[in-house]
Amino acid sequence: MLSAKNIDLHYGASQALENVSLEAAKGEITCILGRNGVGKTSLMQAVTGRQGITSGSVEWNGRDISKLSAADRARLGIAYVPQGRQIFSQLTVLENLKTGFAALPRGERKVNDEIFDLFPVLRKMLHRRGGDLSGGQQQQLSIGRALVMKPKLLILDEPTEGIQPSIIKDIHNVISILRQQGEMAIILVEQYFEFARDLGDKYAVMDRGVVTLSGDIKSMDEQAVRKFLTV
Known about the structure:
Layout lengths: L1 E10 L2 E11 L4 E5 L6 H9 L6 E6 L2 E2 L5 H6 L2 E4 L11 H6 L14 H6 L1 H5 L10 H14 L4 E5 L7 H17 L3 E6 L2 H7 L2 E6 L2 E7 L5 H5 L5
Parallel strand pairs: 3-8, 3-9, 6-7, 7-8
Antiparallel strand pairs: 1-2, 1-4, 4-5, 9-10
């Protein structure tokens, strides 16, 4: 469904990505692994249209979307759960969820019960302000907001960062359910090796703006991958 080809990306004179390629297919989880500062989030910014690329292309179902805005890509079904959650602290949980409506036609603007089946805590806190939630609850809200968009591609940028183990387990279960449903492609950006390994189908390891290793999770050389994750 998604094919990013030979992506170069610059911030001014600084090159963040060099000749990076990535694919994500419906019903599969593609994991992007690497330390902080190696270009993982820059790649997600390029895929979602939040940062323009210098060269290369981003294709969605065979269509080149490299020039489309982030809003237009969202309307095509590309949803992004950013690192750090970025929920609206002064809005209620329900209001935060409804911000996902912006990418939907008016007739489809509804928060489906499936969101609350996946994240029961959100149902209990609908009228609480987002800023009053714990970090783990905010992460669940951020994922729920993306799912409101009924995405065809769900991008999760380090969803375990700063989250307590019990909620990491809950998020693991939700991602697993979404893959089993087979309705979307999922890109999971992670530093937590075991979390990614246990969920993923494909992987790519980044270092200094390039992809250094990639392939199927089942044939992964774990020792080689871990070398790019340790500080």
